[in-house]
Amino acid sequence: MFITTFGAVTSLMRGTVGDVCDVPGGPALGPAPPDGAAAAGHPVPEEERAATLAVVSASGSPMVPSLYRGPAAGRPSEVERLFGDLAARARALGVATPLLDLATLHPRVHQRRVAAVAEA
């Protein structure tokens, strides 16, 4: 859940943790993915949830995961392994995950562009 939350926050907003957390509304973005796991019947233990939220809500943090760095450099991402599987599992359980769905869509669009360039 850590990497999914971390990746969703930075990939959606195309910025570092600090970039996201240092604007109005930014800090509210981090709690959504762990809450989605709980809704799917897999609550994140409180210690892990707190540690994840501490990382994704750190004002001024320059942190970004590889899920963000790869596409930012024009390389493929791990979108299907990290987000695609989780989104599919949530759908199968009837759990709405609008933020995760959006976080999955953004790198998928990038993946398609990377593949088109590779085929050309």
Show the helix and strand layout.
Blueprint: H1 2-13, H2 17-21, H3 32-39, H4 46-56, H5 66-72, H6 79-92, H7 98-119
Helix pairs in contact: 1-4, 1-7, 6-7
Main features:
7 helices, 120 residues, mainly alpha, globular, N-(1-d-carboxylethyl)-l-norvaline Dehydrogenase, domain 2
Question: Could you explain the architecture of this structure?
Answer:
The chain is mainly alpha-helical. It has one domain (2-119): N-(1-d-carboxylethyl)-l-norvaline Dehydrogenase, domain 2. Helices cover 66% and strands 0% of the residues. It is built from seven helices and no strands. Helix 6 (79-92) packs across helix 7 (98-119). The chain starts with a helix and ends with a helix. The mean pLDDT is 82.
As a whole number of angstroms, the C-alpha radius of gyration is 14 Å
The total number of structural domains is 1
Large-scale geometry: globular
Mean pLDDT: 82
> Which CATH architecture is right?
Orthogonal Bundle
What's the CATH superfamily, by name?
A: N-(1-d-carboxylethyl)-l-norvaline Dehydrogenase, domain 2
